[in-house]
Sequence to fold (372 residues):
Amino acid sequence: MIPVNTPSLSGNEARYLQECIETGWISSDGPFVNRFELEFGDYIGRKHALAVSNGSAALDIALKAIGLEPGDEVIMPTFTIISPAFSILRQNAVPVLVDSDPDTWNMDVSAIQKRITCRTKAILVVHIYGLPCDMDPILDIAREFKLKVIEDAAEMHGQTYKGKKCGTFGDVSIFSFYPNKHITTGEGGMVLTDNTEIADKCAKYRNLSFEPGKRRFVHYEMGWNYRMTNMQAAIGVAQLERIEKTILRKRQIGKLYNQLLKPLISVIKPPLESTDFADNIYWVYGLLAENAEMCEKICSSLAEYNTGTRPFFWCMHEQPLFINMGLFKGESYPIAEKLARNGFYIPSGLGITDDEIRTVANQLKTIVAHEL
Ligand SMILES: *Cc1c(COP(=O)(O)O)cnc(C)c1O
Fold:
């Protein structure tokens, strides 16, 4: 059995967790939380870092903190995980979609400006799978039209755009620490910003909107309990100690697959190795089949070998939930639709060995030679 992801917890994770138990600090009040925030904020290069319970929570908080009004429009890619759309809708704002770039799978930057109206308030950037979005033109548009930028860097720990770390762009950025990310805390997330006012709001919203300095249990705004526990942060601190090694290993995994799967390139399209502004960090190793039928066939054949796969994201404008809500009526985004139907990713977590990578590559070769 080769699962699609196995995390690596081989450093100080157990030792730091033990410390939580021995000291009794298991809630969000413990010292690892502050340490993880400081160290992760330092690593990314942002003034403020706020640890939260998961990446989706980070998006909720970030979108509330930038002050969206009901009916405000937020431009985002249709090809992404659903969390950004949920967070926009929870603020009674409106997600406005753009198609994808066929090569990087990121949002098509050239489509953004056409979607701007007098209600547009923000652009929510999502870096997909391993390559960052082209940030310069996005930031130019945001400046010209006075739009906020939220950067979903949940798949980009340590990735850079033109040498500058992902998670440093725009007004506020978020990360996730789900077990398949480059750093995991089991569940967890982080909100980062250089803006003190936004940071203060985020700190408040993650903690039931308790008002610092005012009488306890008197509230003026809605909020959530999105706090990260000391136990999660303890794992995060240990994970961050190994981040450079992790990134090297993820890139090795990607490159080994690239090399082994080269003979299949005419049938299964591998991820881009690099763009003008970044080398792929291979959050997951995604592949594109020629069509949906072939994609399903490959995934079910790999399942027979006990090799795990996941399909690509499903587009926002094709989500039954949103269609039932009357959103995105008559909209189509052909490139993203194709990615969603033809794409899948193969085992590429940190726990995978080179032998397992070779096994998966051989299985793919057999499937392509004999079963398609
Ligand atoms: C993983 C992920 C999230 C959500 O993070 P959770 O911690 O699972 O809530 C958000 N955005 C993107 C792009 C992700 O990959």
About this structure: The first strand starts at residue 48 and ends at 52. DSSP finds twelve helices and twelve strands in the chain.
